[in-house]
Design goal:
This protein has a six-stranded antiparallel β-sheet with strand order 3-2-1-6-5-4, with helices on both faces. Helix 1 (2-13) runs antiparallel to helix 2. The chain is built from four helices and six strands. The chain is globular and about 40 Å long. The chain is α+β, with helices and mostly antiparallel strands.
């Protein structure tokens, strides 16, 4: 895990294009635990918007109100939301038809939620305690992606 966190920290702080860094970060997280899909999102006062994701298929809802979805629930609660079976969670906004489980981890800078890590699995009950620990460590590491980057109101 330490090598992944070091890579994420370096990408977050790099001066390269923000979207490209976010893509590399999402892929680094996905590959580390063989997740089906990982997306990084910006959070503003009113909207949540995808910055980057793994693979070539964008999420079905690239921009949505901050009050919707599991992302919105994680932002409102200020803590991770793990839905082990999205078909049983009415807050789920369909990203891909084959998603079985989704985990969303808020990213904070100076106590303000500025983004999220969204991880999807094709299997239900896919996220273990080790996944939760890993994803929380990732969320705690990547905040620099949002520092000194102006996120316009979407």
């Amino acid at each position: 895990m330490n090598a992944v966190l070091e890579r994420l920290r370096a990408l977050a702080a790099a001066s390269a294009d923000r979207v490209q860094r976010a893509r590399e970060m999402a892929e680094c997280i996905r590959a580390a635990r063989n997740y089906h899909w990982v997306g990084l999102y910006d959070v503003t006062a009113t909207r949540i918007a995808a910055i980057a994701w793994t693979g070539s298929t964008p999420p079905a809802h690239p921009v949505f109100p901050v009050t919707q979805g599991l992302n919105g629930a994680a932002v409102a609660a200020g803590e991770p939301v793990v839905a082990q079976d999205v078909s049983r969670d009415p807050r789920y906004l369909t990203t891909f038809a084959g998603t079985g489980a989704e985990a969303v981890f808020p990213v904070s800078v100076d106590g303000v939620i500025v983004g999220t890590i969204d991880v999807e699995s094709e299997r239900t009950n896919a996220f273990t305690a080790e996944d939760v620990e890993f994803l929380q460590a990732c969320a705690d590491t990547i905040g620099a992606l949002w520092i000194d980057d102006t996120v316009d109101e979407l």
